[in-house]
Design brief:
The protein is α/β, with parallel strands linked by helices. The protein has a single domain, classed as 3-Layer(aba) Sandwich (Aminopeptidase). The chain is 32% helix and 17% strand. It has 9 helices and 14 strands. Helix 1 packs parallel to helix 2 and helix 2 packs across helix 3. The C terminus is likely disordered.
């Protein structure tokens, strides 16, 4: 087994899952080819495909140099499919999921995993420049190799025009940049890149109740919002209110991004469960923070934004969304717990590190999964 899955092996893994577990999963061909002509696939996992089932969407491989993400998602999908097919649970070191937890995920929800959002960048990082972050679109480089690419994580439409939405004091490279030479270059317009268009397609098709984006920068669990500090009392202070344009992004001032109490409890509750699972697996605490504080920490370190460890976001703040239901929260907690336990068991923090050896065995009706990692991880 390769130390790190390359892009061909990631694609082959999804083909193998579909062939091995045809009743439980199917590949989804995404509509947009990458600049280098790669066709991307996601994997839909569910026992039956009833439309009423809540959907969990997990993506990885957004930032090319964060090699752990695609492997983590591929192995998570494999663990889940194998455990369900054998009627077993899963154990990641001190964290155990019983067979009924696995059944809850597979039978009561639809799980969609997109292991490698940015395959052009990942391939380039594997073979040419280890610390490459962006995609490989050269449209704005003007022949300068250092200016190739767009930061996929800055190309979505949420406050893409950062100079319009944010206070000038927040215009740092960790937030975003309109300079192609900077690693956080956000592109010429929202969703200009095929990679973000593919993620949008999944969002539009499935309308997920939980979105989890795996990165491998700092071992933190981050939750909404990323635009400013949260508050639950003043609904007028929100990112769609133009009265607050140019005022967001400063920590400690009067503006706060509104989050309903139920949304806040959902986001922080799931994030806490995920963080606790990571602690149980890794034998050390993980960070738990609102997303906005990642940028302020990077600024204090004096460095540019490199990568985000995990974005845990509710799809929006509508009061009538299905994620409010108690049953939905229960299986979302199971899924988030299991996904991040798999992540923690295989966590690769430093780019270019030696990879792990995975060993599997069954104990007392539970599939035990251990990850032997190299020193320094």
């Amino acid at each position: 087994m390769a130390l790190i899955l390359n892009t061909t092996e990631i694609a082959s893994a999804l083909i193998n899952f579909e062939a091995t577990y045809p009743e439980l999963c199917r590949r989804l061909q995404l509509p947009k080819k990458t600049y280098e002509g790669r066709v991307c696939h996601a994997l839909q996992i569910a026992k039956g495909h009833a439309q009423h089932k809540p959907v969990v969407l997990i993506i990885a491989g957004v930032h090319a140099r964060e090699w752990g993400g695609p492997d983590i998602v591929v192995n998570f999908a494999g663990d889940l499919l194998r455990a369900y097919s054998k009627g077993k649970g899963l154990q990641y070191l001190k964290k155990t999921f019983l067979a009924r937890d696995i059944r809850t995920i597979v039978e009561e929800s639809t799980l969609v995993v997109f292991p490698c959002v940015n395959p052009d960048g990942v391939e380039f990082s594997h073979t040419k420049r280890y610390l490459w972050r962006k995609n490989r679109n050269p449209a704005h480089s003007k022949g300068d190799a250092k200016k190739i690419g767009v930061d996929i994580n800055r190309n979505y439409d949420f406050m893409w025009d950062f100079k319009k939405f944010f206070h000038p004091a927040a215009w740092t490279d960790s937030l975003a940049s309109d300079n192609p030479a900077i690693e956080t270059f956000h592109g010429p317009e929202p969703f200009s890149e095929p990679e973000t268009q593919n993620v949008r397609w999944l969002m539009d098709r499935f309308n997920p109740v939980l979105f989890l984006d795996l990165h491998s920068y700092d071992g933190d669990v981050l939750f909404s919002w990323g635009s400013d500090e949260n508050q639950i009392t003043d609904p007028s202070q929100n990112f769609i209110n133009p009265a607050y344009n140019g005022k967001r992004g400063r920590i400690g001032d009067t503006y706060r991004e509104y989050l309903s109490m139920r949304d806040y409890e959902t986001a922080t509750g799931i994030a806490t469960a995920v963080s606790d699972a990571m602690r149980d697996v890794r034998n050390r605490p993980s960070g738990l923070n609102q997303d906005v504080f990642l940028h302020s920490r990077i600024q204090l370190r004096g460095g540019h934004q490199r990568s985000v460890s995990s974005d845990l976001e509710s799809e929006d703040t509508r009061q009538d969304d299905a994620r409010r239901h108690t049953g939905a929260y229960r299986f979302l907690s199971h899924t988030a717990n299991l996904g991040r336990a798999a992540f923690a068991a295989r966590h690769l923090v430093s780019v270019g590190s030696s990879a792990r050896e995975l060993k599997f065995g069954c104990i007392d009706g539970v599939i035990e999964t251990t990850a032997a990692v190299c020193p320094g991880q």
